[in-house]
Amino acid sequence: MAQIQWYPGHMAKAEREIEGKMKLIDIVIELVDARAPYSSKNTTFDRLIKNKPRLLVMTKKDLADDAITAKWSQYFEKQGYGVMVANMKNFNEYKKIIAKCRLILKDKMEKEASRGLKPRAIRAMVIGVPNVGKSTFINSLAKRKAAVTGNRPGVTKAQQIIRVEKDFELFDTPGVLAPRYNDEEIARNVALIGSIRQDILPRDDLFIYAVKYLNKQYPDALKKRYDVSFDEEDDWVIPVFDQIAKVRAIKKVRGETDYERVMDVFFKDLQDGAFGKISWEMPPCVND
Ligand SMILES: Nc1nc2c(ncn2[C@@H]2O[C@H](COP(=O)(O)OP(=O)(O)OP(=O)(O)O)[C@@H](O)[C@H]2O)c(=O)[nH]1
């Protein structure tokens, strides 16, 4: 695969900032995309947060394959994570997330109380790679609770804290982690879920990969949308382009199928969830 040159300086800076903030927070709420939870997880971050308690939230459950999401939950739970599956667009999702954070920190808070420390709010921070729903989550909380408090020790005015509930506070700016792209399959997955720009990869390669994957894992979805199904052994690429162009009435250019337009339509469909609930990767136990 062509070398992908993409690691903006601000990402490295963001990671340093997150590391600096670790001492101010009790729990990290780490968001990953349920459609590709492994690929959308930044593993270098594990080193940054050390042993900080954390809740792993698999977002966009409404777009992912439920059976596979359930397997991923088990997989991460086995690794010792507190895990939740969420649709960040749901109005009340934040309540469940807060309740789970409280549960994870219950022992710690009780221990503090038994040592005679003054009761205090749990302080959390949301982190994750681009496009996993961090802002959606924070904005939904910020809308409910306008009371933002800044000017606290160690907290700059730019980084403010939202008091969500009496005993729960959240940094109003998420920690943005670098998406992974050093492995071909991971890079494709993060492109397909919109965490890196699709044009970082050769677009036709991504298209071919995605169509082939859907044909294998979700043949009904592909058939329903474009009336397409094929045998991988056959010469299928051009006929599939032509078929999508036909079904979606894409105008020909000088008598030829407009391949770029076909890919535009396909990726737009993908982004809009037009194929139904799709997961792009399975946990290891599912492949066995
Ligand atoms: N269907 C669905 N869409 C979601 C969900 N969470 C977020 N989105 C959508 O995904 C897109 C990205 O959400 P953001 O909240 O901006 O993601 P982010 O992690 O803050 O992204 P960056 O700002 O790029 O770091 C938006 O269009 C959201 O509406 C979810 O659980 N389900």
TrEMBL record:
GO terms for biological process: translation. Keywords: Cytoplasm, GTP-binding, Nucleotide-binding. Its main location: cytoplasm. Pfam families: MMR_HSR1. It comes from the Bacteria. Residues 15-179 form the CP-type G domain. Required for a late step of 50S ribosomal subunit assembly. Has GTPase activity. It is found in: Cytoplasm. The keyword Repeat does not apply. This is Ribosome biogenesis GTPase A. One of its GO terms (molecular function) is GTP binding. GO terms for cellular component: cytoplasm. Belongs to the TRAFAC class YlqF/YawG GTPase family. MTG1 subfamily. GTP binds at residues 131-136, 175. It comes from Intestinibaculum porci.
